[in-house]
Amino acid sequence: MKRLLFIGMGLALCLGDANATNSETRKFKRFPAKKFETKAQLQQRFAEKEDRVFSTLNVSNVQPATYSNKRSGGGNSVQVSTVSYSDLGKSINPFMSITAGRNYVAANPTLNSVALFRRGSQQDKPLAQGPGNELYYDLNTRGGAEGRWQVKRGQVWDNDPFNPGAANFGPRYPQGVLWSAPGQTDTAEAVALGVTRVLDGSNDAWGGLGKGWQKLSAGSQSKLGLWSSQVDPTPVFHFRTYALDVTSTGAVFTVEPEEDLSSGAVVFTDKVMVHKFTYNSALNIFDSTTTFIPFVNSGQDPATGIGDAQLAFGPDGQTGYLVIAGFNPDIAPNFAYTPYVSSTTDGGATWSDLKIYNLNKTVNEYADSSYVDKDAFRNDLLANYMVFNSDSTYYSSDDGAAANTHAVDYTIMDIDLTVDKFNTPHVFGILCVAGIGDTLAVTGPGYYYPGYGSWNFHFTLKPGTDSCLANVVNQNETLQGCWGDCDTDDNIKEFNRPHISRSLDGSIIVMSWYDTDLIANPQTRDENNSNPDLWVRSLRVVAPNEFVYSAQARNMTKGSDYAGLAILGSVAPTLMNTPNGHALASTVALLSDYDPVATNALWEISHLYLNGVNISASPDSFTIPRPGRLVTTDAKQLVSNKNADLGLSLVPNPSRGAFTAHINVANSGTADVKVVNSIGQTVENFSQSVPKGGVNMALNLKNLKQGVYFLSVRVGTQVSTQRFVKE
Question: Going from the N-terminus, what domains does the chain have, and what CATH number goes with each?
Answer without folding.
Answer: 39-632 (no CATH), 640-726 (2.60.40.1930)
